[in-house]
Amino acid sequence: MKRVEQDDQKTCDVCGASIYKEHIDQGIARSMGGKLMCPPCLLDHEKEETALAASGLGDLAPIAFDDGGDDEDQGEMMSSSRIHQSSAATLGVGHGWDDSKYQRPLDTRAISATRCRTFHAKLTVAALEYMNELINNWVDENENITIKFSNSTIGMFEGKQAEPHVVVTLFY
What we know:
Layout: E1 9-11, E2 18-20, H1 21-26, E3 30-32, E4 35-37, H2 39-55, H3 88-91, E5 116-122, H4 125-141, E6 149-157, E7 163-171
Antiparallel strand pairs: 1-2, 3-4, 5-7, 6-7
């Protein structure tokens, strides 16, 4: 939003409301994170920061992934030559996951999740029972994990034929 500045009036960079010199002088409006904020926006921003700090999410470092390529490959666009087929052997189905490639340590005491694992199955009774068995075996084999929350959805999976699947993602 374009900032309109007069002698005694400025504009909030978040909502566009007027900010008077008295607001800035009193400290109820100020610049946070490079943005000039009016009193209501500043209050909302401070509430969000407080909630983030209380949840422990503010302390999390970004996860770095090693894509196995050279630095000069970083600028290349994704192409079909970089997409590889996955199979049960490459995904570790039934063999447990190798978490050693991740930098952030697994924290079972934290409120937030540090990893996720996704399962999917066709929408048939036998496939859903098999997926349940896979999930339960995976949880039994990995005693050091605590599932924080999950998400499920139904969608079409492309293959020889497009078929509806249920996708379950466990965050741990």
